[in-house]
């Protein structure tokens, strides 16, 4: 569970790495029975994803480091950050479990809601473990 949560936090660290202002990352554990099943929410003020980027995220074995051709990637020219002792350095997914596997380790479905910074549109992806 710790590695799965670390992966989700790492995704937020990557999404907020180019913020010029405050980087905000929240992790919420939701246990309100009136809202449905328990859930983990990771919320950030990062760059956001388009609907195509959300769909690309849902493709199995399509790493953010290997997206090419028809797939959009914000990581061209990626340079691994220098290690920082006892700190997340936005490089966990290089060796880690990956966002797709992390969400299904935590639960049976994933809902991602994203708004690219330069857009008025909000995009949503809902994916069940069975569909994935």
Automatic annotation (TrEMBL):
Domain of life: Eukaryota
GO biological process, alphabetically ordered: double-strand break repair
Any single Pfam family the record assigns to this protein: HATPase_c_3
SUPFAM superfamilies hit by this protein: ATPase domain of HSP90 chaperone/DNA topoisomerase II/histidine kinase
Highest classification ranks of the organism: Eukaryota, Metazoa, Chordata, Craniata, Vertebrata
The protein's name in its UniProt record: Structural maintenance of chromosomes flexible hinge domain-containing protein 1
InterPro entries listed in its UniProt record: HATPase_C_sf (IPR036890), SMCHD1 (IPR038892)
């Amino acid at each position: 569970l710790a590695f799965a949560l670390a992966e989700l936090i790492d995704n937020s660290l990557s999404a907020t790495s180019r913020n010029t202002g405050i980087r905000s990352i929240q992790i919420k554990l939701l246990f309100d029975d009136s809202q449905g099943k328990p859930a983990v929410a990771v919320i950030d003020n990062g760059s956001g994803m388009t609907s195509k980027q959300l769909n690309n995220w849902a493709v199995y074995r399509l790493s953010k480091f290997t997206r090419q051709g028809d797939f959009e990637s914000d990581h061209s020219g990626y340079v691994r950050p220098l290690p920082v002792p006892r700190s997340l350095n936005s490089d966990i997914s290089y060796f880690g479990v990956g966002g797709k596997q992390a969400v299904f380790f935590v639960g049976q479905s994933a809902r991602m809601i994203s708004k690219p910074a330069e857009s008025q549109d909000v995009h949503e992806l809902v994916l069940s473990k069975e569909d994935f």
